[in-house]
Model the fold of this input.
Amino acid sequence: MTTSAPSRHHHAGTIARPSWLRGRAASVAALAVVGALLVLLPSVLAAGGQTWVRLANFTLLYVMLALGLNIVVGFAGLLDLGYIAFYAVGAYAYALLASPHFGLHLPFWVILPIGVALACLFGVLLGAPTLKLRGDYLAIVTLGFGEIIRIFLNNLNAPVNITNGPQGINRIDPLKVGAFAFSRTETILGLRFTGAEKYYYLLVVLVIVIMALCIRLQGSRIGRAWEAIREDETAAGAMGINTRNVKLLAFAMGASFGGVAGGLFAAMQGFVSPESFSLLESISVLCMVVLGGMGHVPGVILGAILLAVLPELLRQVIVPAQEAVFGAVLLDPEAIRMMLFGVAMVAVMLLRPAGLWPSPVRRRAVQREAGAAR
Done:
């Protein structure tokens, strides 16, 4: 009798583990799997050609843009249809300071902060006149702001050639760290890395940093102030929140991420033109935020990945499918791709109005609205 109780106690202690320890172990295992997938992804994609690696790079740029717009739309509830303007500011800042256009070839660690600062400045310039606007009126003003930036870039080639107009700026310097250039294919530790693969790893690191910043911001005092403004701006002001400064900070923070993405886009492409910053691009980024789940960082990342990758996958499938069925290409692949894309968006919004991966708060709000409508 004296030995049975300790043995039972010892046996129970070896089996039972605290719930927080099990949760932490599961989180570490999930992060390890995701990290391994991110590291191995370029090698897998390169088997199908460097085009797929470049598609992964542009997907990561869209993730940056979606996370930036999510601060404005998802956290603060400010509808912004001109977000692509900040992307353009960052891209042209890099292009003008790292190309033969002005004869300047500054290092990227100097240019990227300048691009971020300019994007923040333009974010404040957009936010200041719109502090009293809400809803549709705010959307119209931000849409006009985005178009003004694009038209300026398209016409600032006379009487002084600043942006080279619709011809754009080419021969932009790639990212360099000393003699290490991200655009060249090199062998590192016996492994061969192409320029696209090196950019991929840099973009993954930056996306992780931006994602961590967004998560910390959402849980901070500023994030709670944004949420209060999103739910009821009048009540937030009555509670003592400085709605003017908080809204300006949302525009500035969101714009800064767009500036970073724009600079990296210019360095990767080696060419920028106003055509890359159209209204359709702003709407695409907004769709990524809405589709994934406004205000939820993992959901926004999911939406950005889906809307960046699926249209290209459809492009690869539509032409072979028509040739296999009809023996020829009867319908324009681009038109079919956009039609399928639109049908998918409508279906998702009908079936998942809160987004594919909404935050718990957003899910409950949509459920309450649906219950009230019934």
About this structure: The first strand starts at residue 98 and ends at 99.
